[in-house]
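Q: Can I see a sequence and its folded structure?
A: Here is a first one.
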Amino acid sequence: MIKGVVFDFGGVLFGSPLTHISDLEQQIGARPAQLSTLLARSSETGAWGSFERGEIGLERFERDMNAELAEASLETSAVELLKGASGKYNEALIRYIADDLKGRFKLAIITNNFQIASHQEPLEKIRDYFDVVVESSKVGYRKPEPIIYDITFSRLKLAPDEIVYIDDIGSNLRYPASRGALTIKANTFSEVQRTLREVLRADQHTDN
C-alpha cells in the first residue's frame, strides 16, 4: 500500500536545468551533449558534484568549474551554468499536491541543489506542502548516491515499497526501484500528474 510520494524538484516540480544546458551548448557552438557530458563527469568527481554536496562554497566552485570548462575548450562560465536554476513551477502538479495529496500521503522532495539564492528561493515557496525536504547541499550526498534516498525513507518513516518516487532522470530512479519503490519517469510536466493519479488509483483498487 502506497503511503508516501517523493518528488524530484528540478524537472518535476520546477523547470529542469537540462533545458538550459542544451540551449547553452547551442549558443557556444559546442558539439551535441559536450557540455552535458562534462557536467555528468563533474557531478561525480569535479566541482559540480562537490558544490551539490556542500563540500565547497560558491567562490571555489566558480574557480574550479571555470578550470574544467577551459580544459574542455568550452567557451562558457560557471556563472552562465548557474543561470539554469531559473524556471517555472509545474503549477498543475503543485495544485494536485495541495488539494489531493497533502494529508492523505506523506510527501517529500529530494533535490540535488546548491546553497545559493536561485536554488533556495523557489524551493522555499513550496516547502510547506511537504513533510520532508532533503537537499544534497545540506546532507552531503547527491542523487543517485543511495544514502540520500535512505535518508529520505528514514525521515518519512516509510519503507521503500510504501513509496512512489518521481524523477526526470532515469539513473536517479534505479536505487529506489531496487529497494521496492514504485518509480515514475517524468518526461514532461503535463504527464506527471496523470501518471501519478493512475498509479495511486491502481494501488487503491489493489488494496481494496
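Q: Show me another, different protein.
A: A second, unrelated one:
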Amino acid sequence: MYSRRRARESALQILYGLDWVVRDTDVAIEDYWAKFAGEKPDGYDDVRKHCEELVRGVLDEKNKLDERLQATSHHWKMDRMSAVDRNILRLAAFELLYQGDAVPRKVAINEAVEIAKKFGNEDSSAFVNGILDRIAQERGTTPADEAAQREARVRAERRAPKAES
C-alpha cells in the first residue's frame, strides 16, 4: 500500500521547483527523487509512479488549468498567488477536472487543503478550499463522487443502531 498523499506532496515539490527553474521535466523528477525525497517510503515505486503521473498531467494541461483557476479566483492573478498555493491549486484542479472518474471531489479538495496547511501560509488552506470548491461545483458530479457517496451511505448504515423488530 502506498501513500497517495506522499505522491501529491512530492508532485507539489517538483512543480514548485519547476516554477522557479525552467528545466527538463525528466531531470527535475530525477533530481527530486535522488536529492530531496529522503528515505524511500513504503510503496516507493507506486508513490513515484503516481507522483510522475500528476506532475506530467499538470504540466500537459498547465495552460488550461491556469485559465480555469484565473477565471475562478476572482481578483487574483496567477502570478500574484504564492508559488505554493498556485501549484497546490494546479495539482488539485488537475485531479478534479482530468481525473474525476478516479478521484472524488471531496478527496481532491480535502487533500489539497491538508497539503496547503502543511506547505502554505496561514491563509492558504481557506484560499485553496474556496477556489477548488467553485471548480468542483462547476464540474458537476462524476462517477468517483457517486461511488464515494454510496460508500458513505453504507458506512452510515453500518454505524446506525438497528431497530428492533
